[in-house]
Design brief:
Blueprint lengths: L5 E6 L16 H16 L4 H6 L2 E2 L2 E8 L9 E9 L4 E9 L5 E9 L2 E2 L11 H6 L5
Antiparallel strand pairs: 1-4, 2-7, 3-6, 4-5, 5-6
Length: 138
């Protein structure tokens, strides 16, 4: 089993990400999570184009976010994504923190399921291609 199924990105919220209270609007965190998720999937050469090419769509069926502290304009953020489940679904945990202090700002997780693009049917076990890309036995 791989020892580290994670990736981390850094970003700085843009002015247009702020709400009238001068903090990052809650909906923009989904964009930050998506950027980290793509970096993670790219690490294993199984980002969305490769998923599609392998014959599977991976829609998000559940997304949960816990806002701990607000992010602000110009604040350097670290967004960490880590695969924690892969057998029957793809569950990714996220941690958004202040890059300078390590203070936790947001915790989240997403759940994706494999859907066979040829039939439109949901798979009850993750396809072999995912386990292969993650370096797990087929």
């Amino acid at each position: 089993m791989p020892t580290d199924l994670s990736a981390e990105i850094e970003l700085t919220p843009a002015f247009h990400d702020l709400d009238p209270m001068d903090v990052v609007w809650h909906g923009h965190y989904m964009k930050y999570l998506e950027l980290a998720r793509c970096a993670l999937l790219q690490r294993y050469d199984y980002d969305y184009p490769q998923m599609r090419d392998s014959g599977y769509a991976w829609p998000i069926v559940d997304l949960r976010v816990k806002y701990v502290r607000s992010a602000r304009f110009g604040q350097r953020l670290k967004v960490r994504a880590q695969i924690v489940e892969w057998e029957n679904r793809l569950k990714i945990d996220y941690l958004v923190s202040d890059a300078a202090t390590g203070e936790v700002l947001t915790r989240a997780h997403s759940i994706q399921v494999a859907v066979d693009m040829a039939t439109g049917e949901m798979c009850y076990a993750s396809p072999t291609v995912l386990r292969q890309r993650l370096g797990l036995s087929p």
